[in-house]
Amino acid sequence: VLERLNNYVAKKFGTPLAGHFKLSKEMCPRIEQERIEMSKVPYSLAVCSLMYVKVCTRPDIAHAVRAVSRFMSDP
User: What's the superkingdom here (predicted)?
Assistant: First the structure.
């Protein structure tokens, strides 16, 4: 997965999603420049790859994958 994403998301964490971490629509890009920058990030590929990993080997990441997949249309 990391090779396909060119190590875009290769950060080590102890838990899949910390309880205090909240995602919201306010975190999405607001101006055109931010949208252009985010279009370069393979966000949907990362989320879809994580869904595959979740189903096949890592059910412990289900909550984290659900949380980030809510923003696939506007990362």
Answer: Eukaryota
